[in-house]
Every structure is written in structure tokens, then in C-alpha cells.
Amino acid sequence: MSAPLILLAIGVGAVAGAAIVLLIIWVVRQRQMDNARTSGDLPRGVAQVVSGLDGAVFIVDKSLNVLVASEGANILSVVGQGRILIPEIVLIAEAALKGTDVREDDMEIARGPLGDATLTVSVHASPFRNRFVLISVVDRGEFKRLDDIRREFVANVSHELKTPIASVGLLAEALQEAADEPETVRHFADRLSAEAKRLGDITREIIELSRLQAEGALADFEHVTISDIVEKAIDQNRVVAKARKIKLVSGGELDCAIYGDPARLVVALSNLIANAVHYSPDKSQVGIGVARRNTFVEIAVTDQGIGMNKDEVERVFERFYRTDQARSRSTGGTGLGLSIVKHIVSNHGGDIRVWSSPGKGSTFTIRIPEATQ
Known about the structure:
Beta-Lactamase; 12 helices; 50% helix; 5-stranded mixed sheet; Helix Hairpins
């Protein structure tokens, strides 16, 4: 081969090599630009603003990845694990990605991944910078809840307060007739005090149940460690359990955390422990165990009591339902404790399950979404 041809071949090869290198650099840069368009960094300061907002606000990219979310969005369980958890809101985000604002009012969504509680919300999705969507979710169900509570409160009062009020009246008449018989007077006075206490307990728990329904989503949520809830709930039942020589034992992954109202969570767990102690034999044991299951925290309360049959299990969370009517009346049971527990758990986006067998005891298990860090 002549020298000119060799030089020509070398020149062509050099040009081709340079072209290939430039092509590779261009492809790499295009990929970087595509990635930036899909999930690129948010404008400076936006993430800090959104994460500090009080309401449920979050931003997604074109792949519907949640880039930043306020604490309120996590509390309402509309986002989790970097994704939107509510199918209806996914559809709204997809529509907004086409470049137009989308607003939906009076939309009913699930309160959380568990249970049957719902929220009535308005959702507003607004695109910006052609690759992000800002979404806000506002609870609009307060007025409807208040109207429902008003009707149910009247029904509850008329249903359950008739018996103790009638009893108080009859006992008062009996006291008048037995004025000259001290022993009889003391007997009726004791019964009158017991009925008055029962009347007060029922009134207090009806009001508590009405408050829970009115509060709905329980806005005063905070980061709560389960160990604190378990410790306080056990303390509230320690005296009664000790009097009957019932041992209260706790264990498991007590370092778990959830978003919730600490006072309400203590009420729920305390009611479960009190129920377990109430139906357990003397010198037995009540266990409180905590475990992580996927993205949920489970709190189980187990007793060695009388247990329940299938029909009783199905009705155990009904208002005013008592598995042992005679025993509940004699010990002042109202039949509202477990209904209150169910409402508290439901308002936290969770659910409660029951296992029971006659003569072997019962286990009540609360499941609530674990707090995201």
C-alpha cells in the first residue's frame, strides 16, 4: 500500500474515532438530562417549604415518585414508601402531568391501608416546571361527621340511659318507704350509689365516643414511641390487676414508633388491658406484645380468660354489647370500651382483629402503620 493511502486510512480512522467518542459523550449527557427531567432536583428551597407545611402536601415527578411530603401527608396515609397510596389521587396526579390543574371536591378516600374508615377530602393537583406536580389534600368531612354524631348521640343516650335512670327512681321510692329500717336503707343506698356510678360511666363513655367520631382524622398527631404507650396503659390497670394477682407482662419490639395522638392511644390500649383483666381468672397473666409486620406495628393483648364463641366475636365491637350481661351489670360494665378502641384505631388508619376460643382466652391485635423516618 502506498504512503498516501496509509495516511488517508489513518485520517479516516481518527475522524471516525473522534465521532464515536463525541457520540458516546452526547448519549451520556442526554441520559443525564432525561433523568433530570424525570426525577430531577426540585428548585432550591421548595423541599424545605413543603416539608414544613401543616397540611397534607407533597410533590411527585413524572414517574409518580414522591420527592418530598409534609408530615400531614404521612399522617393521613396518602403517601408512603415514596409512592402515592390512594388510587384516586394517583389518577388525579396522572391527569395533572398532562399540563392542567386538576381539582376534585368531596372525594371519599380510605383513611389508611387498614380498616373501613374513610375521609371526605378535596384534592388539588398543579403541575410546575413541566416535570413536577404539587398535590394538596384537605379534609372536608367535619360537618358531615358532626351531623352524624349528633344523631347517634341522641340515639345512644335514649337507648342506654333509660335503665339506670329508671333504677335510680325506683330505689329512691324504696328508700322513702324503708325510712324506719336502717339495714334496708343502707342496702338500697349502696345499690343507688352503684347505679349512679354506672350512670356516670355510661355518660362519660358516650361523650368520649362522640368526641372520637367528631374528631375524625385526629389532627393532633405526633411521633409516638410504642414503649411509652404500653407503659402508661399498664400503669392505669396495675392496681386492679394486682388486687386479683393477675400479672401484666409486656415485651417485643417496644422501640417501634407510629404517628398518633398519645392520649387516645393510651385510652385504646388501656381499655383492651382492662377488658383482659376483667375476663381473666385470678392469679393468671395478661400479655402485651409488640411486633413489626411489613410496614405496620402490631400490638397484641392476650388473656387466659373465659374466651368467646364465634357469634360473640362477630359482635364484640358493637356499642353496648356485652358478652356476659350479668357480670357486666354487676361490675359496672358499659359495653362501650371496645367500641371506643375500634374508633381510636380506625382514626389512626389501622384496624383491630380478634382471636378467641371458649375456655382458652382471647387475643386482641391492633395494627397501625409504622411511622416513616
